[in-house]
Amino acid sequence: MDQTLSNFGNVFAFLLLGVVFVVGGFLTARLLRPSRPNPEKNSTYECGETAVGTAWVKFNIRFYVVALIFIIFDVEVVFLFPWATIFRQLGQFALVEALVFAGILILGLVYAWVKGDLDWVRPTPNIPKMPEMPGEKTGEQGGF
Asked: What are the structural domains, with CATH classification, of the chain?
């Protein structure tokens, strides 16, 4: 039982040290940084352009989806570089593993493409409407 408590103690000490490290970093930064606010510093930065309106502007969610897909595939492709540096030493099995890995990435890309997540502007769906029956009046509710 004391080995279990010792292991939990190690985890607790690690978490405590992490919290102290983060809070200490924030406090040190607060003590060392200058604090001289002015209207120009507090304004929204728009790449040299004069800010118009508020910063609470709705952005198209497609930008974030495409950026996340790019980051996911970019990070996954980075895993191929160590494999490529020692490819000749690894043999045929490593080639098959790399092809399976690349196939999974391509399958994920095709899935995102078919789902329409790579389209910047999606077409509006065409929702069919039921034709009115003869003798029905629109906007009125039937009742007894």
From this structure: 60-121 (1.20.58.1610)
